[in-house]
Structures are given as structure tokens and as C-alpha cells.
Amino acid sequence: MLEDKNPSKTELRDLGEFSLIDYLTKDFKLKNDSSLLGVGDDSAIVKHGKNPSLISTDLLIEGIHFDLSYMPLKHLGYKAIIVNLSDVYAMNAYPKQILVSIAVSNRFSLEAIDEIYKGIQLACKNYNVDLIGGDTSTSVTGLILSVSVLGTVPKNKIVKRKGARENDLLVVSGDLGGAFAGLQVLEREKAVFNVNPSSQPDLSKYSYCIERQLKPEARKDIIDLFEELEIIPTSMIDISDGLSSEVLHLSKASEVGFHLFEDKIPIDPIVSITCEEFKLNPLTAALNGGEDYELLFTINQKNFNKIKDHPYLTIIGHATDIKNGCQIISGLGQQIELTAQGWESFSKK
Ligand code: ADP
Ligand code: MG
Asked: Which residue lies with its CA nearest to atom 11 of ligand 1?
């Protein structure tokens, strides 16, 4: 057995995912003029021709990112693509091509892999992207999926995490917390099934939450809406790790603070009811749950009238001086400093 004799060994869980990325990449400086934006945003930006290209990649590991006991393979294929497309939309750009790499153990049949690819194909169809390559390998046990995406947009339309200015409005699409509520339902049913495999649960009342978890969509429609309303957000990020974590990312990159109003955060009534059933605060699900794949962005106040009554968009706060930090303001006016408790790969939980 290998024994570690190095007393200065740092545990990854003491670092957290974002600190690890910062640590590993801090000494890589961009050398090529064609590398316009490197590590640190939802997608990287490179430019070889007239328009810049957006590139992003994501890794999905069985047992870490998905559980096949309740994730149908077709949904897994679909979701693997969606999470990548979402990172390109988060730059106000359109995804065009994907590469898919897959490692499978002999536990999987051809029919099983085919199901994954049916999901991938459906996502390609729904979002008008082309599968242009990838890689295939065996794995010792589980399933690993890695997806990369390429997208494009005219340079003047690119939106980064950096760019929010004081007094800009903070806006979110759709509603939050649903994917986390759905996960609670699925975990509970898995536990019930393990005890009593013949149970036939009626999950219909949870269908919205379960769908948010198993079949998320990327908000292409919001990018189309920006075009239609002639709005270019000043900063943007997609919500993969929970609202708190994403607000802090915008804050750090843009060097502004935020005021976030608790009672403005959009939560579907079904999500609230489901959370209460699990004795969870729906607000916690929205702030820390993640996997909603909604877009969080800032816009100049002059655009207020264009979006104020839009059914898919909610103004949840505004940018402030960085000195104020990020504050969540309760219905009673109390201010609480926002902390990220979103999902981080290595954190102690
Ligand atoms: P997202 O949640 O939007 O997918 P991540 O949190 O995974 O973003 O990554 C944040 C940034 O760090 C991105 O720019 C990503 O490309 C970069 N990144 C993540 N992991 C690595 C790595 N191992 N090496 C280099 N860059 C990385
Ligand atoms: Mg992202």
C-alpha cells in the first residue's frame, strides 16, 4: 500500500472546487492573440476568423453527478448536453457544435448506450446543434460522459461575468429551487424502493420538480428575447450551483456588491409545497440547491421598462458598491451577508 509521508499534504476538501481551479490555473497566462478569454467564465472565447467562438466543457461522472437508479439513460444524455449549452447561452451566444466523449464499463449494453445517444440526439434537434466528434473508451466500473460545446456570437454581443456596474438591475429567468426539490423526491423514492421494491409510488404531483431535475432545459429563449428587446446584459452567468454562488461569482468578476431581495426570488408554488413536505426552506433550495440552469444577469436601469412585466423574468435586486458586499434583504428589511453553500465537488458535506 502506498503510504503518504508528506505532512504538508493538503486535503482537496479543505480547498473547495473554485479554489482548486484558481490554484491549478493561476500560472497559465494566455500567450496567443486568438485566446480572448481563458479560465474563469462560463465559456472561454477564442477568435480565429471574423467572429469569436465560445468553448465550454463539462464532465459527468456516475455516482457523483448522476445516479442511474433514478436517472433514465435518455434523460442523462439530454441533460449532459443541456448543461453545456447553458454555459454558451450564459455568454449571450449560440451553441453550434458538440463533442461527446464517453467511457463505459461492460456493465452497459449497446442498447443502454443507444438510449444515452437518443437523449443526445433529441437535445441536438431541440437546440439546433451538431454532434461533430468525441472519444470512446472503456472504464473500470461506472459511466463517464464528457461534453464540449462550441458556439458563436458577434463580438459586440458577448456578455461575461464581468461587466455589472453599480445600480444595474439583477434579473433572473424562470424560477428556482425546482431541481433541488425534485432531487429530494427522487432520493426519497430510491430509499423507499430499496426497502420495498414492489412499491408503486404516485409521483404525478411532483412532476414539475422531477422534470426540473431529470430533464432541464437551457434558456435559449431568453437569448432570443434579448435580441428581440435589443438588450445586452452587462454581465451574466447560468445557475448551476445555486443563486448564492452565482451572485458571488458576478460580484467577484464585476467588482460590485449586490442587494438581493428575499421576497422577490421566484419560486414556483409547487416547489414551495414540495420543500415544505421535506421540511426544507424553499428559499434555501433556491439559494443553494443548484441545477436550475436559469440565467442570472444584470442590465442597465434604462432597460427596466422593457422587462418589468415579462412573465419569464424577475428583478431580484441590484448592484451596489463593492464595499457593501453581497447582502440578502429579508421581507422585514434585515440584511444578511450572502454566503455560497452551493454544490462544490470537494466540499465537506
Ligand atoms: P461552470 O459551472 O460554468 O461549468 P466551472 O465552475 O466548472 O464553470 O468552471 C469555472 C471556470 O474554470 C471555467 O472557466 C472553466 O473552464 C475553468 N476550469 C474548470 N476546471 C478546470 C481545470 N481543471 N483546468 C482548467 N480550467 C478549469
Ligand atoms: Mg456556468
From this structure: 40
